[in-house]
Structure prediction request, 182 residues.
Amino acid sequence: MPRSLRGATILDIGAGDGRTFHWFADEGFEHYYAVDISRDLLAHHPQSKGVELFVRDVEEEWPRDDKSIDVVTSFFVLEHIEDLQHLADSVERVLTDTGVWIFTYFPQRREFIHSVEVEKEKKTKGEKVQVKYDEEKFKIQMYCHRYEEIEEAMSRAGLEVHSMDLSDSDGVIGRVYAGVKG
Ligand SMILES: C[S@@+](CC[C@H](N)C(=O)[O-])C[C@H]1O[C@@H](n2cnc3c(N)ncnc32)[C@H](O)[C@@H]1O
Prediction:
């Protein structure tokens, strides 16, 4: 993470209800773009000066300009992303020349039931979002990536890979990554 976020433009991918926003709230950023596929979750995101919310599927549409973002974050999100290369390439494209992508990855074994309403058009899409019990409940697919696949996608995108294991009492449970624009 850069030593100072003063004046920075931050893009939080898969921001959800913004429960990690408080880490950045008092850091003096200029813009904070929170993007999530779920309008319902994003509706709970904290709002303040410089914060803008966007409902988007990052597997598809990337609204930001090239080299426009200083810090991209995505916490607990890669578990839901099928195409890692598309994500890594898109992040690399929007990062400034000194930009950094900070994200976590926790290998999953169980499916995750997402019961909030997602964008209507997702209802008609292939396998990724499937109607589970009724019209308003969706199962968002979990993707079990290997760390090597994540690192390969980052390297192919031209990002320098840094990582740190995250542990609890049972041992290593995940990793935090930094992808640095080289
Ligand atoms: C486990 S939550 C993490 C939320 C938040 N980053 C946090 O740390 O609390 C995963 C988030 O990713 C979002 N998400 C999943 N697939 C997505 C996609 N294709 N495009 C945008 N957001 C997505 C979900 O809606 C959800 O808010």
Confidence is low (pLDDT under 50) at residues 119-137. The chain is about 15% helix and 35% strand. The domain at 9-107+141-181 is CATH 3.40.50.150 (Rossmann fold).
